[in-house]
Amino acid sequence: MHHKPLYALQSRLTIPGQSPSPAADPEALALAALGWVLADQPRADRLLALTGLTPDHLRTGLTDSAVLSSILDFLCAHEPDLIAAADALGVNPDQIVAAQQELGT
Predict the structure, then answer these.
(1) How far apart are CA 6 and CA 103, in angstroms?
(2) How would residue 13 be classed by pLDDT, with cut points 50, 70 and 90?
(3) What is the dihedral of CA 77, 80, 81, 86, to 10 degrees?
């Protein structure tokens, strides 16, 4: 019986507790940002009022790059929220701006 060397198996193992940064994926970052926005009712209400999105549109648009871009655009338009969201998500504010630009194209 032929066994693969242990190092070949280790290259496919993941380390528990280490997940990729949401900044690496603009869609993941937008979804994480949405979670942050929705955690605060006044901020969530402001998102809906300023973007024109509805709760139903948000639910059905979670994979729509235009909806995700709108969420990040909402944050980018208000620097205090941008900075607070970036801090809460463990990313640099520039990463949120870059994700918004990538999703908006």
Answers:
(1) 40
(2) very low
(3) 110
Query: pLDDT tens digits for 45-99?
Result: 999 999 999 999 999 999 999 999 999 999 999 999 999 999 999 999 999 999 9
DSSP state of 11: T
pTM over 0.70? The answer is yes
Handedness of CA 70, 72, 76, 79 (dihedral sign): positive
3-state DSSP of 21-66:
CHHHCHHHHHHHHHHHHHCCHHHHHHHHHHHCCCHHHHHHCCCCHH
Distance CA 79, CA 62 (A): 24
- Asked if residue 66 lies in contact with residue 14, where contact means CB atoms within 8 angstroms, the answer is no
